[in-house]
Amino acid sequence: MVVTTSDVALADEEVSPEVLESFRKLVQADADLVCPLTDDFLLRFLWAADLDVKKSYHLEYFAARRDFPDVFLLNNPYDYLPIFKSNELGFELNERDPLGRRIFVARIGDMDPSRHKFEDVLQTCLMTMEALSVDPEVQRLGIVVLVDITRFSYKLVRWLTPYKIKVSLKFLQDCIPVKMQALYCVNAPRVFSLTYNAVKPLMKEEFKRKISWHNGDLSSLHKVLPPCVLPKDFGGTKTKDPVDWDSWFGHVLDKAPLFEELRSFGYVSKQES
């Protein structure tokens, strides 16, 4: 994905009171939705949609919680501490990219169906993104994701059922108030094409444009993420440990009270109304 000067300029903008009030009125008009109307809460959605009021409203943040509660209702992050501490499936790098954006590594090739429950994996991803979404810097700049597909296997092809693909795409494309500015897919084996070809027709064009592929010596990756910020696994030259292995997820644990509060909001069922 090419980052344009307009992307950088947008991060420097201020949200006008008129835009914020217009969005607030749109949310208030949804009689079945119970949610906070504070500036801080609404700004997350406006920034995620590049300050487009209508696009902000159509993020399926609460609809996903209503339709897929087992996956999208936030739980207590301390219940998932072993997954966070294992650092097997993902983590945040200490350094930022050249545009100041946080860098996350997702090791989707390392998922083990015999040990990792789909709902638990997605829940840890969801909690991480939710915690990030309240950071004003992340709201403006967004994040980038380094997707490590190195060890993706036929076992994972069989594990990723149509339901899991549908829910995963909903998470990535429609219902998290964080701008994923780029997904750098690294070392995809040939078997991964089976899954990607099944998923690609379901992707939105805007999402497809964020994906780039990097194999071999990873020189193409180093044009967007310089080796000095990367672990050795990705051709990095970082001499100091690139990750705070024991604490990178601390900001997620700190948001446990927020997650509990957010569980009380959402669409009211007809039985409750």
UniProtKB/TrEMBL annotation:
Transmembrane parts of this sequence: none
User: Which Pfam families does this UniProt record tie to the protein?
Assistant: CRAL_TRIO (PF00650)
Example GO molecular function: phosphatidylinositol bisphosphate binding
- What InterPro entries does the record point to? CRAL-TRIO_dom, CRAL-TRIO_dom_sf, CRAL/TRIO_N_dom_sf
At the top level, the lineage of the source is Eukaryota
Q: Which residues form the CRAL-TRIO domain?
A: 77-242
GO CC, any one term: membrane
PANTHER family, sorted? ALPHA-TOCOPHEROL TRANSFER PROTEIN-RELATED (PTHR10174), CLAVESIN-1-LIKE PROTEIN (PTHR10174:SF226)
Protein name, per record: Clavesin-1
